[in-house]
């Protein structure tokens, strides 16, 4: 009876928690991405618009406005970059677990994939040799 009550309360709380964590990570990544892209775009425009005899403006004297204003809510991160980040997480996890647990790289990659996709079969457990 306790297990049923625990599952009825715990599962929705877990879903809310995962949603908040995912939203926070998404907002953070979108902010970092927008700052990098906007900085890169400003630098490119700065290099293209500066003539040979003109006094070159500094980046913070730009006509666009203050650099503090970045419309991060409107920036969409391309799916290719998202897929690259996921692949890097899987590869990094595989390398770390293959070194720490003395697993083959393919076994560690399998464990990393199964763990990050929350499938978790339980056939491989770190610390059990």
From TrEMBL:
Cite a GO CC annotation: plasma membrane
| Alphabetical GO biological process terms | stabilization of membrane potential
Keywords tagged on the record: Ion channel, Ion transport, Membrane, Transmembrane, Transmembrane helix, Transport
- Membrane topology category: Multi-pass membrane protein
Top-level taxon of origin: Eukaryota
For this protein, the parts annotated as crossing the membrane are: 6-25, 75-97, 103-125
Which molecular function GO terms apply here? outward rectifier potassium channel activity; potassium ion leak channel activity
Its localization reads: Membrane
Name a Pfam family for this protein: Ion_trans_2
The Potassium channel domain sits at: 84-127
Cross-referenced SUPFAM superfamilies: Voltage-gated potassium channels
PANTHER family, sorted: FI03418P (PTHR11003:SF334), POTASSIUM CHANNEL, SUBFAMILY K (PTHR11003)
- What protein am I looking at? TWiK family of potassium channels protein 7
Q: Species name for this entry?
A: Amphibalanus amphitrite (Striped barnacle)
């Amino acid at each position: 009876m306790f297990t049923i009550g625990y599952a009825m309360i715990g599962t929705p709380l877990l879903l809310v928690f995962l949603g908040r964590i995912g939203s926070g990570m998404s907002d953070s990544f979108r902010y970092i991405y927008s700052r990098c892209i906007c900085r890169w775009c400003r630098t490119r425009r700065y290099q293209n618009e500066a003539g040979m005899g003109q006094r070159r403006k500094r980046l913070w004297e730009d006509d666009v406005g203050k650099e503090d204003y970045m419309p991060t809510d409107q920036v969409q991160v391309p799916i290719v970059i998202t897929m690259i980040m996921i692949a890097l997480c899987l590869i990094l996890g595989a390398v770390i677990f293959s070194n720490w647990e003395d697993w083959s790289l393919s076994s560690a990659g399998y464990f990393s994939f199964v763990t990050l996709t929350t499938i978790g079969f339980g056939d491989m457990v770190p610390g059990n040799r």
